Please model this.
Amino acid sequence: MRGILRWLWRHRWRIGAGLIVLLVIDAVQMVLPWLVGRAIDDFARGHQDQAGRFAALILVTGLVMASLRFFWRYLLIGAARRIRRDLRSHIYAHLLRLEPAFYDAKPTGELMALATNDIDAVTQACGFGMLALFDALFLVAFTIVAMSLIAPELLFQALAPLPVLAAFVVIAGRRIHGRFEVVQERFAGLTERVREAIAGVRVVKGFAREREFAADFAVGSKDYLRANFSLIRLSASFDPVIAALSGVATVIVLWSGGRLAIDGTITIGGFVAFTTYLGMLTWPMMAIGWVINLLQRGSASMKRIEQVLDRAPGIVDAPDAVSFPREAGIACTALTFRYPQRRDVTGVHSSDEGRPALAGCAFDLNPGATLGIIGLTGSGKTTLAHLLLRLVDPPPGTLSIGGVDVRRIRLDELRRHAALVPQDPFLFALSIRDNIRFARPEATQDEVERAARLACIHDEIVGFPQGYDAMLGERGVTLSGGQRQRVAIARAVIGDPRLLVLDDCLSAVDAATEAAVIANLHGFLHERTAVVISHRIAAVQASDLILVFSHGTMVEQGVHVGLLASGGLYARLADLQRAEEAIGS
Ligand SMILES: Nc1ncnc2c1ncn2[C@@H]1O[C@H](COP(=O)(O)OP(=O)(O)O)[C@@H](O)[C@H]1O
Ligand SMILES: [Mg+2]
Model:
């Protein structure tokens, strides 16, 4: 609830103005029953000359209320919409600041549910929830004052059922909170299932698992429905309970109030006005049930949202952060790295818990030199690349660029001057040109083409009917894995990085094209530092320093000739790949 109040506070002026208008409307509304009562008393005395005046007054009151209603809704609902916009942008911006490890542990579908359903629940609480809450409070206060002015002795009897109602509201309200949390959780789970099934639809189809997936989804849907029913059973009991209690109050008033009217303690008009005020209490009572519902839902959702908002970014600038060094040599000393343990939903740990992804890695690379890294899959190559770019944080003092610990380099500079071409690059649903100049949006067409030529993808791009304007993704062309990898290389080189990290990024390209790209890159890399990760000897053999990884440990390092001569893993891999090539050709 505190979270919601904080967001409301940001729009306090708008909300305050809306509440004042609401207060005026509710006060004006009180005049009507009083006018009607006065008119009846006049008629009872046999006068009718004032009828026109009463009618005119009633009309004016109605008009004032109607015109004010616009502002009241406009201000209060408008504030809720603004809160929704702010909250949505805030969550989005926050998500972009979180490091990749957060996304490894958090299902995307859950985040999507947060950004839709949970934000909606908060908006509802801030809009209609707030509105109905204050409307109800004002109306209750005003009608009670009006009723006590007419017949104070009748008021206490009329309000006798109130304590029962209060107890009900408190108990049921607390339960709604819990049940709504379950509903939102189930919804998040469903969203994630859909997202995953769509992302992996080819695999699902490839193994003919559509039916199982659909059945599994139906089970999830049923759970969601059940959670919803348990919530609805509770919230739906509000209205009947309140209607019953207000019926009881009416019976009491008719009974005792009728007596007072017959006695002449109150006038007939007063009696009518009193019962009208009592009738006017029914809505705020129902509204309170409704408000509790909305506020509980809103605060349950806000709690879920805050769990994400409170998650501080794990990788941030050091207080004494410095610029990216001019000379980007790399030094690595006694680097041992374990991925932080992740307790997944089932509470089961991954099997190789505790085994470091990298152990005792050490090397020194001169500025402008090329580092080759070779090793079987799972040997820690990608981990080293990610540590270098601080996509995960290396232990302090283990990895430095240009003599500066990577943890002390300003993040935006690190990511601008060190470019990573990942193994499985992600391209956006933009034109090919916009994808290439993603690293430098102001790049000219010439620069884009130069980068594409360097990555040996230019000829294929101009072969598309729309050339560089061809759209990628859902609305456009689908690139092959090898084409995507080369577009990603073009995207990395166009940013003019001082350090280029290629993570096995030619794995889907045929050997001839790979050789051509590598030859091109040699020219480009001239004064830049580069890390070339590959599982192919051909890609790394020209490197100034080659590291050989096996199961997270660096088993050899040296240059091509020396490594071949030493007859270790590198030499064995070279033999193997030569044999493969011989078969292939
Ligand atoms: N995000 C991650 N969280 C936990 N473990 C990971 C993560 N990424 C990789 N690993 C583990 O680290 C080890 C090395 O992986 P990786 O660096 O990707 O190897 P390579 O790139 O050589 O194939 C593997 O055992 C892998 O399971
Ligand atoms: Mg890898």
Summary: The pocket of adenosine-5'-diphosphate (ligand 1) is lined by residues 104, 339, 357, 375, 377-383 (CB under 6 Å).
